[in-house]
From TrEMBL:
GO terms for cellular component: cytosol. This is HAD-superfamily hydrolase, subfamily IA, variant 1. Keywords: Hydrolase. It comes from Sphingobacterium deserti. GO terms for biological process: DNA repair. Gene3D superfamilies: HAD superfamily/HAD-like, Putative phosphatase, domain 2. The lineage of its organism: Bacteria, Pseudomonadati, Bacteroidota, Sphingobacteriia, Sphingobacteriales. One of its GO terms (molecular function) is phosphoglycolate phosphatase activity. The keyword Hydrolase applies.
Length: 230
């Protein structure tokens, strides 16, 4: 990889499902199924609105918290355990593909000397299963994978991005761009001080929902991000 100038974007942190990976919203459909198996009647739209982008146990708590002031912790844990079991089974059999132009986007960034980091509200086991299914390799296709298991606090806290910055000795968020398909992705980038917090319309949230989080830009395709980095 080439080296970049110190004042330029040196790293792009991308969300996984809905941003760089197309899994037909399996994760949120499964989250929806698991929660409603415990007697709730949430719509998928409600699950996406209040759960998208979050660590999944946190997402369950947020969704149930919209109708219960103090959600029961034991029930949340039971729902989370069911969700993990259902998701593993579905991912074993699902068609998982890169989002349009994702491999080309990664290659273009790395050819410019820009680090490519994937981050996610998934646990590491699930995240690694996904990238293995796609044949993506750390050190070849991407530079690093940071998961909810790797940091003490998850989105919208900046910990995953700050962890990635530490990996590559990047001192300032002014040298980082964050890309994601949910409002919480955008908030994560803003909280990390990223120069760019970019929403993409290929996943959980609509353009209007993304706009409400005040992103730096909103795009419809990953390749549209490249000229925004210059």
């Amino acid at each position: 990889m080439e080296t970049t100038e110190s004042n330029s974007i040196q790293m792009v942190v991308c969300d996984m499902a809905g941003t760089t990976i197309d899994e037909d919203n399996i994760v949120y459909k499964t989250l929806h199924q698991a929660i409603n198996q415990f007697g709730y009647n949430f719509s998928l739209e409600h699950v996406l609105t209040y759960g998208a982008g979050k660590e999944k146990k946190q997402a369950i708590e947020s969704i149930i918290g919209t109708i219960e002031q103090h959600p029961d912790e034991d029930r949340i844990t039971e729902i989370f355990d069911l969700f993990l079991a259902l998701l593993e089974e579905k991912y074993d059999n699902a068609l998982i593909t890169p989002q349009k132009n994702a491999p080309e986007f990664f290659t273009a960034l790395r050819n410019k000397g820009v680090r490519v980091v994937l981050n996610t509200g998934y646990n590491r086991r699930t995240a690694e299963k996904l990238i293995n299914k796609l044949g993506w390799k750390v050190g070849v296709d991407i530079d690093a994978l940071v998961t909810a298991d790797d940091v003490p606090r998850n989105r919208p806290h900046p910990d995953m991005i700050l962890h990635a910055m530490q990996l590559y000795n990047i001192p300032s968020g002014e040298q980082v761009a964050k890309v994601g398909d949910s409002k919480i992705d955008i908030a994560e980038g803003q909280n990390a001080g990223c120069r760019l917090s970019i929403g993409i319309t290929t996943g959980a949230h609509t353009k209007e929902q993304l706009q409400s989080a005040n992103p730096t830009f909103i795009v419809d395709n990953l390749m549209s991000i490249l000229p925004l980095l210059d």
